[in-house]
Design a protein that fits this description.
The complex is a heterotrimer of chains A (249), B (649) and C (223).
Chain A: E1 3-9, E2 18-24, H1 33-46, E3 69-70, E4 73-74, E5 95-99, E6 108-110, E7 113-114, H2 117-126, H3 146-156, H4 163-167, H5 174-185, H6 194-207, H7 218-222, H8 230-248
Parallel strand pairs in A: 1-5
Antiparallel strand pairs in A: 1-2, 3-4, 3-5, 6-7
Helix pairs in contact in A: 2-6, 3-5, 5-6, 5-8, 6-8
Chain B: E1 8-9, H1 26-33, H2 39-42, E2 46-50, H3 54-66, E3 69-73, E4 91-92, H4 104-114, H5 121-140, E5 155-156, E6 166-167, H6 173-190, E7 194-197, E8 200-208, E9 211-219, E10 225-229, E11 232-235, H7 256-263, E12 268-269, E13 274-280, E14 303-307, E15 324-325, H8 327-331, H9 341-353, E16 365-368, H10 370-376, H11 378-396, E17 405-414, E18 417-418, E19 431-433, H12 451-473, H13 485-504, H14 510-524, H15 531-551, H16 563-587, H17 611-614, E20 616-621, E21 630-635
Parallel strand pairs in B: 1-21, 2-3, 2-11, 3-7, 11-19
Antiparallel strand pairs in B: 4-6, 5-6, 8-9, 9-10, 12-18, 12-20, 13-17, 14-15, 14-16, 16-17, 20-21
Chain C: H1 2-7, H2 9-34, H3 41-53, H4 63-93, H5 107-130, H6 145-152, H7 156-183, H8 192-218
The chains are: A alpha+beta (249), B alpha+beta (649), C mainly alpha (223).
Chain lengths: 249, 649, 223
């Protein structure tokens, strides 16, 4: 396959960026999208040019490190991560636009690499259960109904890649935040911190400069792990409940 | 000039911390004998933790909870991304919830046997004891393990054992456990007890007056090289499988932290013990950048076969039942498709070597679910393995519900690592190694679902108990600063190395060297090793190293985000570590676990151990790049599990 | 608690949802009242007069109406201010758009924002036209709403403005009702279809009901 790539190039956080055009040839349909970029980079290095910087690590779709907007879609046309997107999803001769995640809370570090540390700070605000090592009761002491356990798992699947923010017209982090709130709040172990968790995480999310939710639904469409939009609804409910309870105290 | 093969043998390695007495009392005894640090004094102690995987994440969180000041590092943009996250299958624990005869002793026994009698009994027994607490801890953190309708935890069986002791969270157990540790760590970061440095890579160890006192690390965004000081340094930087270029490791997993520590005096044990995982997706071409693992749990229901006839190119569905060879079921009737990983991998290699492999290049065997689908129904298969099937289909463009999967072994895990004593302390006082980074509890072969167990055991429970002893016995000494001559020297060496990499300006990319080294290692130090092959590799590696320093091309500068520089610097260390792996494999003329020497096999092709010669862990001491190292043997004593030739037939 | 709500994006969305639902409830009543126009000037004018006497003798003349007006004004202001502040925040949170734009991305958000602005302007015109009579096209007469309505819809621009606004209203309610339900946490996977159906039906009924009046005037059914 022969392809034309238009790639966002930006030297560093402070520099102005621009789209640059590259031609790549000899691309196999069995290559992953990132292997296609590897091929481009090998050529650029030998030509003495700066290779395209992009984040990636596990290349199995689970670490959440890879992050490209391909032809206007976070992680490209398939519902998966960029590392699991294969070139057979494109056609010979295609022109492909590759851009970084765009959001004020995710400033560009270089080229296609962005800073997602805002996500870490949202988790730090309350995305955990306080259970110091050694303090745990016997695992079977608290049975968890299977539907609740499955519900928790479904939300715990979030890989923190940031595609939801990238796809959101408002650069909102509601789906990311709600996934963790739902995971922990549905479990009996998470109950003692149920209210503070949602209030603190939402406050931190706002603090980081993410936008608000207009329920456009783009986040859930882009999510490679299929976190549902109802996750946000449920978080709203948790937030209202927590606000009411906090108001009574 | 001495050749690398002219190693010398030094004083034996002795584990001075391991207590004596009945095995089930040793851990209690050690914990009691270990000195404690007064809680009020803990915040005066700083501990550096490198890595945020299961071992590092859990250690950082736990040490911070205890009151120590923790400075932690990871090269990823967030501590949540460490490669532990990719573990699929599950985590073992001797809970005996199934009432199927499991016990701490059985888990201990299975692990020692599965490791082909090359692990330390005391450590393994401790691991089995702690396994029980790990599950409790993770459940308390909200890890959403699979549950049954009654609300209790579900378990399944895993390769190499006959009890159902593996706890799991669909095919994403590693992810869920890691996020649990990450969340605990996040709480400590928010509390100000952990100073987290993401996108920062350790490049060297600072040893002052014989003690580990800090590290040199590079900020991967700005390129700034800085020093960090502490009272103890913990390496939780994972394994070194990426020496092989193609492996199931993450692209950026690397050996720099452990190799630099080795160069500064930490012995490296059993480097040749690498695990080749039997169920990976075969490679499709030269563009391949990594290999993807399919969980071993697939072997619970899938049947592995190849055509009986050589060069049979018919599509699998057209090959009739009686022309198929279900070779694992044939050779190992009692364990069948569930034999340990090393055995399954080697068997796959053998049938492919016979010319009966399937798929492009004949490098693959079938993993067939037709029977399972017929027996359990497609729905049940989907519920159990759906995400794995989807992943397979995405990568190969083939539907495993219709056509059997094709699998082939791939480098997955490294049992070798920094030599540590019972306290997980390396030979450099104050330097600890936990998780896959140490030579660990798995001997010559790791059982499925045991890596997660070991990482969390080390991080949550073992290290936090043993590091107290070191810190209590070595009270806060003089501050080390950048002005210290040792620090200045280490800093200068690091900077020089990076400058040199940038200055060569040759004509080959970092990846091209990495790939060349990887292919060499796969051929000569992979699934089957021979004297002549290893010698060939040992001759070739210094040549590649030499060529590397003449022809490497790294664009850009060191004062910026430069992924090529990161890569090249990691390859520098691979090029030295690979040599030690080959030497270790050459010196160990027996076969054991994942280390198969063609010269040492039973008449029917099984690994033949030589217990009278090799019942030891080989700990290597660094003497200089390309210089023959010194071998220190730690004799392994088996008081409880008596070595027998492993039999899974 | 009020501070928590107003300072949070989720809280502001709640304000929008609640105020939106208040306005929606009002619109349903308003539309039903409007349809009385098809029963002739007598019934329509009588209805308009009754609106001013609701609650008597407990309430004085027009008191109830003023209470409703105040509540509505508060709802409109709360809705608009929240929307304005949230939109500013949203635009700031996404300072740069993609070079390659996905065709439908942000469709709902855009219709809500522009639809909201159109509706805001419409309300101002609507009040000046039919409540105060300031910009009325014919000779506005207090207490003769039937004639006033007929006058308005006898001009082409009166019809055009009204119909465009009502179409915007339909789109706004279609996403807004469902969205409010999500914001208030009432949505769930099981209920999602039902909510969407209710939103669509509400949007359709209100749009059709409101547009029926100008259409009636134009076709001569109402004159």
């Amino acid at each position: 396959m022969k392809l034309t790539l238009r790639v966002w190039r930006q030297k560093n956080a402070d520099a102005e960026g621009t789209m640059s055009t590259y031609e790549v040839d000899g691309i196999s349909p069995d290559m992953s999208f990132l292997e296609m970029l590897d091929t481009l980079n090998e050529e650029l290095i030998l030509k003495g040019e700066d290779p395209v910087a992009f984040d990636h690590d596990c290349r199995e779709g689970i670490c959440g490190m890879c992050s490209l907007v391909i032809n206007g879609e976070a992680h490209g046309p398939e519902r998966t991560t960029t590392c699991q997107l294969h070139m057979r999803s494109f056609r010979d001769g295609d022109t492909i636009d590759i851009e970084p995640w765009r959001a004020a809370a995710f400033p560009v570090v270089k080229d296609l690499v962005v800073d997602r540390s805002a996500f870490d700070r949202i988790i730090q605000a309350g995305g955990y259960i306080t259970a110091p090592t050694g303090s745990a009761p016997e695992a079977h002491a608290t049975p968890v109904p299977k539907p609740d356990a499955d519900y928790a798992f479904e939300h715990a699947e979030c890989i923190g890649c940031g595609a939801c923010v990238a796809a959101c017209p408002n650069g909102a982090a509601m789906l990311f935040t709600s996934a963790k709130v739902n995971h922990l709040n549905v479990l009996p172990q998470g109950a003692p911190e149920r209210e503070t968790r949602v209030l603190d995480m939402v406050a931190q999310m706002d603090e980081e400069g993410f936008g608000g939710c207009t329920l456009a639904g783009e986040c859930a469409t882009a999510c490679p792990k299929g976190i549902p939009l109802t996750s946000i609804t449920r978080m709203n409910r948790e937030w209202l409940r927590a606000t009411r309870k906090a108001g009574k105290r | 000039m001495t050749s690398y093969t002219d190693y010398t043998t030094g004083a034996p390695a002795v584990d001075t911390k391991a207590p004596a007495g009945p095995i089930h009392e040793r851990w209690d005894k050690r914990r009691f004998e270990a000195k404690l640090v007064n809680p009020a004094n803990r915040r005066k102690h700083t501990v550096i933790v490198v890595g945020t995987g299961l071992a590092g994440g859990s250690a950082g969180a736990t040490l911070a909870e205890q009151g120590y000041k923790v400075i932690q590092f990871c090269y990823q943009d967030s501590p949540r991304r460490a490669h532990s996250i990719a573990a699929q299958g599950g985590i073992n624990a001797a809970k005996n919830y199934r009432n199927d005869g499991d016990s701490i002793h059985r888990l201990f026994y299975d692990t020692v046997k599965g490791g082909d009698f090359r692990a330390r009994e005391s450590n393994v027994h401790r691991l089995a004891q702690i396994s029980v607490e790990i599950i409790d801890q993770c459940v308390a953190q909200g890890v959403p393990f699979a549950r049954e309708y009654g609300g209790l935890l579900d378990t399944r069986s895993f390769g190499g054992v006959q009890v159902s002791r593996t706890f799991y969270a669909r095919g994403q157990t590693g992810q869920q456990l890691l996020l649990g540790a990450y969340q605990a760590l996040s709480r400590q970061i928010a509390a100000g007890n952990v100073e987290m440095h993401p996108r920062t890579e350790m490049l060297d160890l600072i040893v002052v007056d014989g003690r580990a006192r800090g590290i040199v690390a590079r900020d991967l965004i700005t390129g700034r090289i800085s020093t960090y000081f502490a009272d103890a340094v913990v390496l939780a930087s994972g394994g070194y499988g990426n020496v092989f270029y193609l492996s199931t490791n993450a692209m950026n997993s690397n050996a720099t932290a452990v190799w630099r520590a080795h160069r500064r005096g930490a012995w490296f044990a059993n480097p040749c013990f690498t695990q080749i995982h039997p169920t990976c997706i075969p490679r499709t071409g030269d563009h391949q950048s990594k290999l993807t693992l399919m969980s071993e749990s697939l072997r619970n229901d899938g049947r592995i076969w190849v055509p009986k006839a050589k060069g049979d190119t018919r599509p699998p569905n057209e090959i009739p039942e009686d022309e198929r060879d279900y070779y694992l079921e044939r050779i190992y009737p009692s364990f069948g498709n569930l034999v340990p990983r090393d055995i399954a991998s080697r068997a796959a290699k053998n049938v492919c070597d016979e010319g009966r492999g399937v798929g492009p290049g004949g490098q693959g065997v079938y993993l067939d679910f037709a029977d399972a689908i017929e027996r359990m129904g497609r729905k049940a298969v989907e519920a159990k393995y759906g995400n794995l099937f989807d992943m397979y289909q995405r990568i190969t463009d083939e539907d495993p519900y219709q056509v059997p999967m094709r699998i082939y072994p791939a480098v997955h895990y490294t049992m070798g690592g920094l030599w540590v004593d019972y306290d997980l302390q390396t030979t450099v006082p104050g330097l600890f190694a936990i998780g896959e980074a140490n030579f660990s509890d798995h001997g010559a072969n790791r059982l499925g679902a045991s890596a997660l167990m070991q990482g969390l055991a080390d991080g949550y429970f073992v290290l936090p108990a043993t590091i107290n002893d070191y810190l209590a016995r070595n009270p806060h000494k003089d501050e080390v600063t950048d002005d210290h001559p040792v620090v200045r020297e280490v800093l200068a060496e690091t900077e020089d190395r990076l400058h040199l990499l940038l200055a060569v300006d040759g004509d080959r990319t970092p990846d091209s060297f990495h790939r060349e080294l990887g292919e060499l290692m796969w051929e000569f130090c992979g699934m089957a090793r021979t004297d002549s092959g290893l010698r060939k590799a040992l001759e070739r590696i210094p040549q590649i190293r030499d060529e590397f320093w003449r022809r490497i091309k790294v664009p850009g500068t060191g004062e910026e985000f430069n992924q090529s520089l990161e890569k090249a610097n990691r390859i520098v260390d691979y090029l030295e570590l690979a040599e030690l792996m080959c030497l270790d494999a050459l010196h160990r003329t027996e076969s054991c676990g994942g280390h198969f020497r063609e010269e040492s096999q039973t008449p029917d092709g099984e690994a033949a151990r030589k217990d009278d010669e090799f019942a030891y862990a080989a700990a290597w001491e660094f003497t200089g790049t390309g210089e023959a190292p010194v071998l220190h043997k730690e004799d392994l004593v088996f008081e409880y599990v008596h070595p027998t030739q492993r039999s899974y037939a | 608690m009020a501070r928590t709500v107003w300072d949070s994006t989720v809280g502001k969305k709640t304000v929008m949802a609640v105020s939106g639902l208040i306005m929606l409830l009002y619109l349903v009543v308003h539309m039903i009242g409007n349809l009385k126009i098809f029963f002739g000037p007598g019934e329509f004018n009588h209805y308009a007069h009754w609106l001013r006497t609701v609650g008597e003798p407990f309430m004085h003349y027009e008191w109830t109406l003023w209470v409703i007006r105040v509540v509505l004004l508060a709802a409109v202001v709360a809705h608009a201010v929240s929307a304005y502040q949230l939109s500013r925040r949203d635009i700031k949170a996404r300072p740069r758009t993609y070079v390659h734009r996905k065709p439908r991305a942000g469709y709902a958000t855009r219709t809500m924002r522009w639809g909201g602005v159109i509706l805001g302007l419409f309300i101002v015109w609507h009040i000046l036209d039919l409540t105060t009579g300031t910009v009325h096209s014919g000779g506005f007469e207090t207490g003769k709403p039937y004639q006033n309505v007929v006058d308005t819809f006898s001009t082409w621009y009166g019809n055009a403005v009204y119909i465009v606004a009502m179409l915007a209203l339909g789109l706004h309610i279609r996403h807004g009702f469902w969205s409010a339900a999500q914001t208030l946490g009432a949505g769930s996977r099981a209920r999602d279809r039902a909510l969407k159906t209710v939103a669509n039906v509400l949007a359709l009924l209100l749009t059709a009901g409101f547009i029926a009046v100008p259409v009636g005037v134009m076709t001569g059914v109402v004159s």
